[in-house]
Amino acid sequence: MWKKILLDTLFPQFCLNCQKEGNIICQDCLSSIEISEFNYCPFCKTPKRVFDKGTCPVHRKMKLSGLFSATSYKNLLVKKLISRFKYQPFLKNLSLPLTSLIIAHFILSENKLIFQNKENSLLAPIPLSKSRERWRGFNQATLLANELSRFLKIPLLNNNLIKIKKTQPQVELKREQREENIKGAFKLKNPQKVRGKRIFLVDDVFTTGSTMEECARVLKKAGGKEVWGIVVAREPLSD
Questions:
Q1: CA–CA separation, 124 vs 222, rounded Å?
Q2: Are residues 117 and 199 in the same domain?
Q3: Cα 21-23-27 angle, rounded to 5 deg
Q4: pTM of the predicted protein model
Q5: What whole-number distance in Å separates Cα of residue 33 and Cα of residue 75?
Q6: Which terminus of the chain is more solvent-facing, meaning fewer CB atoms within 10 Å of its CB: N or C?
Q7: Could you report the per-residue pLDDT of 110-131, keeping only the tens digit for each?
Q8: Is residue 93 part of a domain?
Q9: How far apart are CA 238 and CA 116, in angstroms?
């Protein structure tokens, strides 16, 4: 406690958005971010609301069962927070306010799936390549998954799903190229740990869904019962 008081006195924090002293992002600015009330099919270019199912009928055969997305990546403040979280200079302590957006989505959408059957559920961060994680010093998805694990009381399965293939940055590629780029990039070190489980894959941003779909394929092949995605923000699907 005294250490925090001393650090706050010597090195006061200012809101990244409005510059108000106190927190890295003040409550007023965080509250201004619009949280999604509903769940939408992860793979439809035009947002299609889904109810008891995680995908629309057209995409029911996809390996990813559905997606929880707190907000839109179009929001400039959201984009700024995620950028400062994962690019230099890294602000790792943004993991808590970003996770709070996800939790707000769970509550606002009244989707009870995340709170059910916890003893048979796992949280798994989308893995980075070893070189990328060394460069950053951490995996941003792991920090988010850690916070969610503490709040939801769902076990965290870390360092089991790993990335084994170096890929081009997905942001530089079109949709079809992303699917080819990420194919065969992941494996499970210990497949039996996911057998019969509901797995929630955690990441910061969802774009075309190629990365999560490939991870879901690996998890389902190993006997995972369901695989859902959880992200802070979703980008519009486009080529």
A1: 14
A2: yes
A3: 100
A4: 0.92
A5: 8
A6: N
A7: 877 888 888 899 999 999 998 8
A8: yes
A9: 33
d(CA 49, CA 225): 23
* Distance separating the N- and C-terminal Cα atoms of the chain: 49
- Boundaries of domain holding 14: 1-32
CA dihedral (59, 64, 68, 71) in degrees, to 10, reads -70
Residues 6+ apart with CB under 8 A from 188: 160, 161, 162, 194, 218, 219, 222
Structural domain contains residue 69: yes
Pick from 158-167, 186-195, 209-218, 221-230: least confident:
158-167
Residues 43 and 142 in one domain: yes
Q: Is residue 11 part of a domain?
A: yes
Counted domains in the chain? 2
Residues listed for the chain: 239
Instruction: Identify the pLDDT of residue 5.
Output: 41
Interatomic CA distance for residues 4 and 21, integer angstroms = 15
